[in-house]
Amino acid sequence: MLINLSNHPYRYWGTLQIEASRCYGNVVDLPFPVVAPDADSQKLQTLAQNCVQEILSMGEANNITVHVMGEMTLCFMIVKLLKEKGIRCVASTTERKTTYNDDGSKVSEFSFVRFREY
Q: What is the percent of the chain with per-residue pLDDT over 70, rounded to a whole number?
């Protein structure tokens, strides 16, 4: 099973990412928590522990891979805790294509390339 711990639901993934996810089994979405910019380390640690407990309740540790993408410091804490429990964690890598409109606004398009293990 691939647990998609991100704010990018599986149903919106592109064909390449869906195809790449098949080697992990079924994909289950788990929304990445909202992290307040003023949250302290204790709040982040609590969020990380809650995420890990929820992930552990979803299946056997040896049959889970977790796609972890979100606020970087919380990602770090979650990945650390999961790896300590022997759970594989991956990130999605993308190629960014940026264009600028006549008004100076920037438009970025991200194209999935591969999953990379933490």
A: 100
